[in-house]
């Protein structure tokens, strides 16, 4: 009878996963998995600074793409349970998935000078603004 609450919880979790995918993911062990990338965006005279919270993800599994004013961040999320040789496995769970977020900034980003750093679960993007175009240029006719 003591296992009944965990069975109910497991059945409820499975039901929600089937009818509301992406609602939540509760790993059996380890850190909670990100369901959404939470961001803070600041603007200064030179550009933008974006702080994206992506805890529990390896740096190599994070991808950033810049297309004009649109910045896209995506991450591959993996969760594995660790077991020792002496354990008798009764249940083994894994989670593989991805999260992504796109932002449209008020100005184009100079992707050649953009910098990304990842530390303590936070991705920091320093995104300089692209220099404005010189405007229309009059061509000399020969």
Key features?
mainly beta, 4-stranded antiparallel β-sheet, 1 helix, 3-stranded antiparallel β-sheet, elongated, Immunoglobulin-like, single chain, 142 residues, disordered N terminus
> If you consult CATH, what is the topology?
Immunoglobulin-like
Average pLDDT, rounded to a whole number, is 77
For the largest beta sheet, what order do the strands appear in spatially? 1-2-7-6
Q: Percent range for helical residues?
A: 10-25%
Q: Give the tally of structural domains.
A: 1
Q: So what's the overall shape?
A: elongated
What is the number of beta strands? 7
The residue ranges in which pLDDT falls below 50 over 5 or more consecutive positions are: 1-9, 21-25
Task: Name the structural class.
Answer: mainly beta
Overall CATH architecture: Sandwich
Q: Could you please describe the fold and organization of this structure?
A:
By secondary structure, the protein is mainly β. The chain has one domain: Sandwich (Immunoglobulin-like). Helices cover 11% and strands 37% of the residues. The protein is built from 1 helix and 7 strands; from the N terminus they run αβββββββ. The chain has a 4-stranded antiparallel sheet with strand order 1-2-7-6, with no helix packed on it. The longest helix is centred in the first third of the chain and has 16 residues. The N and C termini lie far apart (94 Å). The N terminus is likely disordered.
Task: Tell me briefly what this model is.
The chain is mostly beta strands and 142 residues long. The protein has one helix at 4-19; strands at 38-43, 47-53, 62-67, 70-80, 94-104, 115-119, 122-128. A hairpin with a 3-residue loop joins strand 1 and strand 2.
């Amino acid at each position: 009878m003591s296992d009944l609450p965990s069975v109910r919880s497991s059945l409820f979790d499975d039901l929600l996963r089937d009818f509301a995918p992406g609602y939540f993911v509760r790993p059996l062990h380890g850190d909670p998995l990100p369901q959404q990338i939470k961001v803070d965006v600041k603007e200064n005279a030179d550009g933008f600074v974006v702080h994206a919270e992506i805890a529990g993800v390896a740096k190599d599994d994070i991808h950033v793409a810049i297309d004009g004013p649109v910045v896209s961040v995506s991450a591959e999320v993996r969760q594995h349970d660790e077991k020792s040789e002496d354990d008798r496995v009764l249940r083994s769970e894994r989670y593989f998935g991805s999260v992504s977020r796109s932002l449209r900034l008020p100005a184009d980003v100079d992707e050649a000078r953009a910098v990304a750093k990842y530390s303590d679960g936070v991705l920091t993007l320093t995104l300089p603004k692209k220099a404005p175009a010189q405007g229309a240029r009059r061509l000399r006719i020969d």
